[in-house]
Amino acid sequence: MNTPKDTESPLEFSNLVNTYYKPLFRFAYSLAGNQEDAGDLTQQSFYIWATKGSSLRDPSKVKSWLFTTLYREFLRVRRRGNRMDNVEPEILESEMPAVTPNVATSIDAMSAVNALVHVDEIYRVPLTLFYLDDLSYKEIAEALDVPIGTIMSRLSRGKAQLKKALLEK
Amino acid sequence: MNTEEAKAILQSYRPHLDDANDPIFKEALLFAENDKEVRSWLEREQSFDNIFAQKLQGIEPPANLKEKILSNLPSSTADTESEIFTNFTKVIWWRQPLTWSVAACFIALFTLGVVLLRPREQIIQAQPAMEALVQAVNEHSRTVSKLDYQNNDVVALQDFLMTNNSPAPQSLPANLQNLNGIGCLSFTWQGHQLGLICFQGDKIYHLYVTEQKGIPGLKSPKYHQFNDQSSATWTNDDQLYILTTEGEPKDLASLL
Question: What angle do CA A48, A49, A55 make, to 5 degrees?
């Protein structure tokens, strides 16, 4: 007979780690721009879950909770002065550059991140979550605590900057 | 709906995530079906999105990251991992009366301890510091005559402040977000770096943001009135927000 301890609950820590450590790392990488800080942010997010996550009562919110926590942790570390992101933001580009899909085909994963870090953080964060495909746009809005319309406008601007960065590569 | 509106919405469209059933996308998709230009634009856009998403999802974490995470649990947690992480599926402990009684006792003792043992100086200093700041921004908001940057788009104003290393609101109440922006300003007051965004509603609203830095957390807004000027103060995500306007606190409450 299965006791709760034997049951492979999706909320068990090892299951959560298995399911989310890769997308969380990718999100962290796009924020921090390097593997070391991305790894630290990912670890720290799970650590916070280990200490506080059990107070979360709605299991369907776990995914958003982890992404939100990682993003807040990134902001917290940066405010303390350990600035993780040294990339100068681009000037706001509202026009969408004409980019063919071939431009994206010609790059590898690292170049994709390098292009992303040239996108202003305010747009990069929702854009990365959009491309990671783990959260719906409503969940992205919830995770970043902004209205849905704002997410859509940030995605649009983020894409414009991303395409510009790819063209200039 | 016109071409630009359809494109703006479809930028966020991901067909593999059940977006097609979302009313927001339905109308734009219908528009694309009947508009050759938008249809071919959408095909190119999705092709680009798919390729870029694949690239991004191809990033592999360091080989030992998972082990590090699993070994980095708080020591007490590691021993009882299953107990903690199966809370949702176990007996609903928080509905147990005994749990509540014990918790209530702990909270009461903890609160008493915090009040009695917290250095008095810290309480005395934190409160005037915040009140002085609130009063200063109220004064400032009466006399704002120059803005660093003017734009109706609130996102652009947030972006300008962030780009210029100024405190910028990380999250805005939805009702405030929906107002038009006027402009923004970055300035320093007695060592506090502040960012200001001015909004145009039925009247002008000024939102100041600074780092929380030792100021006690205020999860729900605290309202002040200084003559004909009102302000609401709250904290969120390590930031202190002060919203001011000419009028009564209820004028602010409707936005928060």
Answer: 115
